[in-house]
Design a protein that fits this description.
Blueprint lengths: L9 E5 L3 E4 L32 E4 L12 E4 L12 E4 L4 H8 L12
Antiparallel strand pairs: 1-2, 2-4, 3-4, 3-5
């Protein structure tokens, strides 16, 4: 898995909500998990989205469709509770880099220019 995400772009930005990456094709429609196929959600009721900087698996809107794509929240996102596998958080001043990405100029389909 070493180097898997090297050079992968943030292909989707929803201002004030999230930035998404992890698709090696850069289109937002690709992605392959380490396991080769999609994998199940791992949702814990106590893990919630109360603030910015939380890292979770992106899916296609249905349960158990995780692959290589993930997102980072730019603000509180209560509507995501119970829908995405939350697995990390951005620490320290790195959040300012994430917020800067979230301010990028956008083209069609929430894609940064």
């Amino acid at each position: 898995m070493e180097g898997y995400y090297d050079g992968v772009i943030f292909h989707r930005i929803v201002p004030g909500f999230l930035v998404q990456t992890g698709d090696r094709t850069g289109t937002g429609s690709g992605g392959e998990s380490f396991y080769g196929d999609v994998f199940e959600d791992e949702i814990h009721p106590r893990l919630r989205f109360p603030h910015r900087g939380l890292v979770a698996m992106a899916n296609n809107g249905t349960k158990n469709t995780n692959d290589s794509q993930f997102f980072i929240t730019l603000d509180r996102a209560e509507e995501l509770h119970g829908k995405h596998t939350l697995f990390g958080r951005v620490l320290g001043n790195t959040i300012f880099n994430v917020l800067k990405i979230g301010q990028a100029e956008l083209g069609e389909n929430e894609r940064p220019l």
